[in-house]
């Protein structure tokens, strides 16, 4: 397309048909299992893309920052889950959003946070709904699904000025699974942890309106979602090399790349120097401990065709160094100064975060859009 | 200060007196050696800070993107060096800046680039000045100072429509030096490579108006700069853990930190969970191969006092996990939910790049400013 050639490099390119295909694949899967998807906005973070992620303004959405919640609420989206442990300092912004008609739920995993939330609601004559975070695999936060503290926290919220609305868990350790069996086990374990928690609550008569689970690897491997009210996932929208390494997608499913220009040859060292460093690619090395370490990204031609042995092996601020790996040599004539290459990201959330805008191409219907990313907290 | 407590976390804080002290330290050193500093704008990238970096609008400055050059030229700064290998696609923006009165010089290291530049200048009835990049330590781009291609490139420019104005080298490998002797050697080697290149050019009667060298580690270790017309450095303005690890600064000289809030305790695992993940800290692991690996950053109290054994060991998008290292335990009572900590960056350029704004405090005269960062390319 003419437009892509006119843009200065480096820039973040979205292949729109691939993006839409990724969205459809997961929503079909989750809806096919009888539950609903609550997409995580943290990956795409653009209101220009929101119509594709959320069918309507009441569609459930997950955010990782209050800033995203504010942007979505401002556009009229109402069913928002802020899925990072709440701190007192963020509550007034949540209250303000709720007072304007949004329903922003918060997350917590301790009596202390529940007390803080109750106190804030009492002091501010408001009621904020909370989910309790359950730890299903030791990845980050949350309490054990069998921990009696779960009931105590739920009761504290139910008896106080805040609201208890359910539980949430996230199988973050699924990122370390590399075969279908362990992925299915991780998915099953995530479901079971959520159900254990709800069972414990039900045993004392506490209902869970929301039973929220999800991570991109597990979301693609659920077999049965009975008792689960929603699934969260984010990076599935773009996909990336980490997800390809885990086996969740193919390289061709990666909808995002950084377009870069060859600005130097170091023939003695076998280096192509390009104008995409970590400012454009991010410093994310998410494939470092995977069976295939992709450096700072794999290289494709402009038609999306992967160049087997080339990867970005070094990233400085505005320079990337591309080398052939596996004992291959670069044929420098194939990559003259000024030629353009695409770098597939290790971690699309991280690479997207380095860009204010995405350049979105639909090669099928020959359209081009610019999507603006919401920045900050 | 009241203001710092009112800001939502995470945010990027600049300790202004420390920042000013870092600037003064290097400019005094370089001026004391009889040459001038051409600060690299890529670290700070804020026009709000420019008055501290550049004494006046004719002060020399280095940039790593055309976007920075445009921002500076728009403010009237004229002496700009774009220190990334030039590609044809960026030349029209350089021409536009020069036609408005700026003098933006470009960098190249091949006959092919010199031909492209000449052709562009001929076609556009303009003349753009170039420096030739010299490779002093095998770090990235450039040609060997003794390579006869240097004379060929210079002559091609001199005989063509572009201009040849001198040479540039960068001791990027100095980042792998960990003692004073090797730092001094790296600094001396950088100077010598530059002088070798100018000697080769002089031998055929070609003068170098500009002999530009620099990296933050070497810049602090030059002994003699005879024959060098300018020194470039960027990260010295903020400093960071990588620089402290190399021994260029002390921890107390680090002028930048990310302020974060404790949002969770995992007492079983010995984890403090904070609201600064890689979105706020960057994924940079620049200390990974240093004698002291600082994870994703070291932790200080709000008064800047370092907490000896705490570091961010894991960074997710909006979560950081802080652990005590060296066999120590965290006393959780010291870090209640809601308490604030500061994270010192591995690499200040990378951490600053994650933020649209810097919150700049002068604890001495109790002033507060917001500096806006220039984003994109």
From TrEMBL, chains A, B:
Q: Which residues form the D-serine dehydratase-like domain?
A: 255-362
- Keyword NAD attached: no
Tell me the GO molecular function terms.
Answer: D-serine ammonia-lyase activity
Q: Which SMART domains match?
A: D-ser_dehydrat
Q: Which SUPFAM superfamilies match?
A: PLP-binding barrel (SSF51419)
Give the record's keywords alphabetically: Lyase
Which segment of the chain is annotated as a signal peptide?
A: none
InterPro entries of this UniProt entry? Ala_racemase_N (IPR001608), D-amino_acid_metab_enzyme (IPR051466), D-ser_dehydrat-like_dom (IPR026956), D-ser_dehydrat-like_sf (IPR042208), PLP-binding_barrel (IPR029066)
Q: Which example biological process does GO assign this protein?
A: D-serine catabolic process
Report the sequence similarity comment from the record: Belongs to the DSD1 family.
Output this protein's name.
DSD1 family PLP-dependent enzyme
